[in-house]
């Protein structure tokens, strides 16, 4: 029975071998020698292996499901082959399941994982998978926080140029909420070690640093079901999979739905005289903001619009959850309020590209940045900060002064606003390090 099931998954087929997987799963110990032997065959033959031979591919997922520690060394040997060989042998596995396979077969050899991460001759996605396994081992308490941070920092500073491993490091730093390692992420951006298309720019990394999902954080699945992993892969088909042509009407309907998803309509909030004031003071609206002069920021966007675009901004820790980090733990209220203005002006706002109004967007950005400039100059004067570097060190959160002030000058120049342009430029010139 087991030999027949193994034979069924030895070569490529268009139909997922569901029954063979069931038999192999029910006869785990009898199947393991065949699966390990398939890995050895792939390692030995490499690109000479028959292109239709698939047993080694299935073996990776099944041995991961069986949590076969005895297979870990062979698995790491296989995925550490030259990148073109690995691509030939297992294809998309390196981006769709390998970290789970490595984690579930991990035999305690942490040095092996570290060597894989450091070896630039190995496929960069394989190295990132090994790094992700180490991240899960940190969460499991098998690697100390000090050792984990030290390894991440060392890997960053050993990088010689762009490396996908650095993308993964930034992701792990943020999801582990290592706020003290934000300078390492900044270093990677400054030295072009990572791709801003992976997590977004530095501001997106700051958001991710303070973001918590409802589910418990996990980098690798702690158990696997090989059949569930593989049955929906595009390599399997049970008939004609041709996608019907989309009509013009259906296309327009889809685009309208996309626009509503990206930018749902905002309903202006009606506030009664006796309702609680939306500013959060706890007072009735009539005794608080109802008769106050309109704030300059309200000339740019309504409070409802601002709330929408600040939804991704790190949440205030009014009801604190033990073990979590909050922006207020690291920055004062003035810093955060100035940063919110910068965020509203500079953070990417999704939308359909052909519906964007560049002139309107530039105007909005310009006005938000100018308000942030006024806040920053007041803070610097009050605290006697004499350089942009000192301001960044104490108050910079999502953006550095050089980034947003340069953008502001550009927008003011384009708008022909010479008065404000000179004001901003003169302030920049005064912000020099003291001798």
Automatic annotation (TrEMBL):
**InterPro entries, alphabetized:** DUF1186, SEC_C_motif
Entry's Gene3D superfamilies?
3.10.450.50
UniProt protein name: DUF1186 domain-containing protein
- Which species expresses this protein natively? Candidatus Mediterraneibacter faecipullorum
Top-down, what is the taxonomic lineage of the species of origin? Bacteria, Bacillati, Bacillota, Clostridia, Lachnospirales
């Amino acid at each position: 029975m087991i030999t027949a099931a193994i034979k069924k998954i030895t070569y490529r087929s268009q139909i997922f071998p569901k029954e063979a997987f069931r038999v192999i799963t029910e006869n785990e110990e009898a199947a393991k020698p065949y699966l390990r032997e398939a890995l050895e065959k792939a390692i030995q033959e490499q690109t000479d292996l028959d292109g239709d031979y698939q047993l080694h591919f299935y073996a990776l997922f099944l041995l991961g499901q069986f949590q076969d520690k005895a297979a870990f060394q062979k698995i790491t040997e296989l995925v550490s082959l030259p990148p073109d060989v690995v691509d030939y042998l297992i294809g998309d596995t390196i981006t769709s399941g390998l970290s789970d396979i490595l984690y579930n077969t991990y035999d305690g050899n942490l040095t092996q994982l570290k060597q894989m991460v450091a070896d630039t001759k190995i496929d960069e996605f394989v190295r990132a998978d090994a790094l992700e396994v180490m991240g899960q081992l940190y969460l499991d308490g098998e690697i100390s926080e000090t050792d984990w941070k030290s390894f991440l920092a060392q890997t960053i500073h050993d990088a010689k140029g762009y490396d996908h491993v650095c993308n993964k490091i930034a992701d792990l730093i943020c999801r582990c909420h290592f706020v003290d390692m934000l300078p390492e992420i900044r270093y990677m951006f400054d030295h072009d070690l990572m791709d801003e298309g992976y997590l977004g720019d530095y501001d997106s990394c700051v958001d991710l640093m303070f973001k918590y999902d409802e589910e418990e954080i996990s980098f690798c699945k702690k158990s696997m079901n090989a059949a569930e992993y593989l049955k929906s892969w595009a390599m399997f088909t049970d008939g004609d999979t041709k996608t019907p042509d989309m009509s013009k009407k259906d296309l327009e309907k889809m685009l309208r739905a996309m626009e509503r998803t990206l930018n749902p309509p905002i309903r202006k909030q009606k506030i009664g005289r006796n309702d609680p004031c939306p500013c959060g003071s706890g007072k009735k609206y009539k005794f608080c903001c109802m008769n106050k002069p309109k704030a300059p920021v309200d000339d740019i966007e309504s409070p409802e619009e601002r709330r929408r675009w600040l939804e991704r901004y790190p949440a205030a820790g009014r009801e604190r959850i033990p073990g979590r980090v909050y922006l207020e733990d690291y920055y004062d209220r003035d810093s955060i309020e100035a940063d919110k203005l910068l965020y509203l002006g500079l953070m990417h706002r999704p939308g359909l590209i052909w519906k964007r109004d560049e002139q309107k967007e530039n105007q909005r950005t310009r006005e938000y940045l100018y308000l942030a400039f006024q806040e920053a100059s007041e803070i610097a004067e009050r605290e006697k900060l004499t350089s942009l570097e000192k301001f960044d060190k104490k108050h910079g959160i999502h953006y550095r002064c050089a980034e947003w002030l340069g953008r502001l000058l550009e927008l003011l120049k384009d708008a022909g606003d010479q008065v404000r342009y000179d004001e901003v430029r003169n302030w920049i010139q005064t912000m020099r390090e003291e001798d």
